[in-house]
Amino acid sequence: MRTQFAVWLDGIGLQDLDPRIYVTDVEEAPLQTKQHLHPRLSSGGMFASPALRQKLTVTVHFLIHESDPIRRKRLLMQVSAWAQRGSTLTVSDRPHQQLHVQAETLPAMASSLKWTDPLSLTFAACAYPWWEEIVPVSLTLLSGETAAMHLPGTSAHVPVSVNAVNTSGGTISSLTLTCGETTLTLEGLAWANGEELLIGPDSLGLMTMTVGGRNAASCRTPQSSDWLLIPCGAPATISVSCERNVAVTVSAKGAWV
Q: Exposed e or buried b for every residue in 234-250, given b needs 16+ CB within 10 A?
């Protein structure tokens, strides 16, 4: 018998933990969403809010070919430890994609004597309930330049990360970035030569802006977009406008929804 699927958590394969472990299937449950309804007071009926993505669940089915109950339970505990340590799931039938997960249901052994019984464990993606590309698409532009970025995927849009360096030899006070249909203008930066300007989501999904390690959120103009976003599956225009020379690297990961 051989493993039919390959599953990895943080690059460590379930099928590689022990030769007696065989992955037989990877099952994706339908995406869980939620909508809020609000009454239409003037004419009756209801307004429906956009569907909120709540959870994407992946179940891994496997076998442990070990008839000795003690050794079988040890292998099962090893699988449980593997499932709880990792956070980034990749599977062989979704090449170049990853899912940020946490273990939701650990495998359990119904009977120590039935060593041929199938086993399973479940992972849930809540914070980021979509598959994303492992390798980001990136491009570098100088001040005044425009380029097109094409992301793979089916998501309407994904956030963009920006790493810009002041290469002008002087101090920069303003910068405008355009990504697709979103625009961000920063004013009053006091951005010194050689300093980095970083823009993008943090680990909690909140947008951050720093220049030289200092918070630059207060420099955003009221007319700016809340996020720099780029669509997936279609080319989008990226442009940089600045009073002096800068080198701006823009990167994003395609998402599949």
A: eebebebbbebbbebeb
Asked if 5 and 91 touch (Cβ cutoff 8 Å), the reply is yes
Instruction: Tell me the per-residue pLDDT of 7-52, one tens digit each, with 9 for 90 and over.
Output: 999 999 999 999 999 999 999 998 777 666 767 776 677 767 666 6
pLDDT digits (tens, 9 = 90+) for 162-184: 999 999 999 999 999 999 999 99
Could you tell me if 196 and 212 are in contact, meaning their C-beta atoms sit under 8 angstroms apart? yes
Give residue 1's pLDDT. Answer: 53
Asked if 125 contacts 132 with a C-beta cutoff of 8 angstroms, the reply is no
Place of tokens 């799931």: 89
How far is 227 from 231, CA to CA, in rounded Å?
A: 12
Integer Cα distance of 47 and 211 in angstroms:
42
